[in-house]
């Protein structure tokens, strides 16, 4: 047998070995073979708290990577149902048609109306809010404010904050006469901070944190109750909602371990730092 025949006879085996080597390399993660990833998507209200908790968790669990992505509660629901995420982050109660999901409550929050800090209106009641958002009241002077047209900011479809707001006002989405449609809490806050005539509704925790850091917004009392975490904790504030994770089926061991961390007293200080209300354990 010639050298050429020997090479020809063994070439398929060499190729097979090379292909196997490439496949083995492709299967190696840059972070190591033992890195476990837990993915959470959804509510922009829940995400900042979960992201802070994830940083703390990863410090003592270097083998775990926590990925947190926003997109609204509707995305969290959809991704949990489809299996694209280990957990969906949702800032409302589950609906009857979402019974395939299991909810894990981590905190409680409220939804409040916000205006620019220079707006003289101190408070609104439910009927005034309804009239503003349906276009019956178009000028701030009608509710004790300045002579200026009201710029109404409302949340986009699929946002849990919108659904909570509609539940409180007993309105349908079609009833809302919005000048500006926003997504995440930060978009609503920026809209109001940048326009003295604007009004919006957002998470109490997010709004209070921004106001405390100097953002020019003001949280309005609603139905005579100040929008504070204390009022939410006591059940006095009229617009409250749970902040929770949702999952379908049995989560992976890594996901279960992170869930146990999120529902423990180990993040109580983080919950309070975000001005949310811890859940009694």
Sum this structure up briefly.
With 281 residues, the chain is α/β, with parallel strands linked by helices. The chain contains ten helices and twelve strands. The protein has two domains: 36-108 and 244-278, D-Maltodextrin-Binding Protein, domain 2 (3-Layer(aba) Sandwich), CATH 3.40.190.10; 109-233, Periplasmic binding protein-like II (D-Maltodextrin-Binding Protein, domain 2, 3-Layer(aba) Sandwich).
Walkthrough of the structure:
This protein is an alpha/beta fold. It folds into two domains: 36-108 and 244-278, Periplasmic binding protein-like II (D-Maltodextrin-Binding Protein, domain 2), CATH 3.40.190; 109-233, D-Maltodextrin-Binding Protein, domain 2, CATH 3.40.190.10. The protein has helices at residues 3-26, 47-60, 73-82, 126-133, 160-169, 185-193, 204-212, 229-233, 253-262, 268-273; strands at 36-42, 64-70, 87-90, 102-116, 123-124, 151-155, 180-182, 198-203, 217-219, 221-222, 240-247, 277-278. The relative contact order is 0.18. It has ten helices and twelve strands. 37% of the residues lie in helices and 23% in strands. Strands 1, 2, 3, 4, 6, 7, 8, 9, 11 and 12 form a ten-stranded mixed sheet that branches. It is elongated, with a radius of gyration of 25 Å.
